[in-house]
Every structure is written in C-alpha cells, then in structure tokens.
C-alpha cells in the first residue's frame, strides 16, 4: 500500500507563513495545520529568501541556469589546471 503525498497550494503556504510572521510560534502553527515542523521551517525560510517569488509551482522549476553555468565554468577551470599539470610532469601522466 502506498501513501499519497499531500500537496499544498501556494495560497495555503503563504497563509501559514503569515501566521508565523504575525507572532505565532512555528510549532503551534504546525500543530494547528497538521504539518511537519521542518516543512513549515523550510517554507518560512524560502519566503524570507525569495519573497514574492516563493512557491512558484509544483515541484522543481528546473535547473537554475546561472548555477549550471557556474558549475560548467568551474569544471572547465579544473580541466585546464589538470592539463597544465600534465605538461609539467609528463612521466606522471604516462603512469596514470
């Protein structure tokens, strides 16, 4: 038997986050709405970080292009450094 995961609308998440912002404790709000405290904490953190862009839709909105480009640039830099080190020690490159 599989358990169906609950999904929450953007409006519900914003309502719950506003209750915490109004002064209620996260634990109290989580109990009232039968939520996991860690999930509510994550929602509050995301709302603080992204403001109006928080909770854009269902699941992941896809990879962040800026982060992907940064990762590719770092990988390219590592590859260049590795190739450069091979020129310095050709005997070591043959051994590998």
Keywords:
96 residues; Arc Repressor Mutant, subunit A; elongated; mainly alpha
Describe the fold and architecture.
The chain has 96 residues and is mainly alpha-helical. Helices cover 66% and strands 0% of the residues. It has a domain at 7-56: Arc Repressor Mutant, subunit A (Orthogonal Bundle), CATH 1.10.10.10. Helix 1 (10-21) crosses helix 3 (37-50). It is elongated, with a radius of gyration of 23 Å.
Which SSEs are present, and which pair or pack?
Blueprint lengths: L9 H12 L4 H7 L4 H14 L14 H24 L1 H6 L1
Number of helices: 5
Q: In which range does the helix fraction lie?
A: 55-70%
Radius of gyration: 23 Å
End-to-end gap: 51 Å
Extended strand count: 0
Strand content: under 5%
What are the low-pLDDT stretches, counting only 5+ consecutive residues below 50?
Answer: none
CATH class of the domain at 7-56: Mainly Alpha
The fourth-level CATH homologous superfamily of the domain at 7-56 is Winged helix-like DNA-binding domain superfamily/Winged helix DNA-binding domain
Large-scale geometry: elongated
Mean pLDDT: 85
């Amino acid at each position: 038997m599989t358990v169906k995961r609950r999904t929450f609308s953007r409006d519900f998440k914003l309502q719950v986050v506003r209750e915490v912002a109004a002064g209620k404790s996260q634990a109290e709000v989580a109990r009232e709405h039968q939520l996991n405290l860690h999930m509510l904490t994550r929602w509050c953190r995301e709302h603080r970080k992204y403001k109006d862009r928080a909770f854009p839709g269902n699941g992941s909105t896809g990879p962040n292009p800026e982060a992907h480009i940064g990762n590719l640039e770092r990988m390219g830099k590592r590859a260049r450094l590795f190739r450069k080190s091979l020129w310095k020690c050709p005997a070591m490159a043959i051994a590998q």
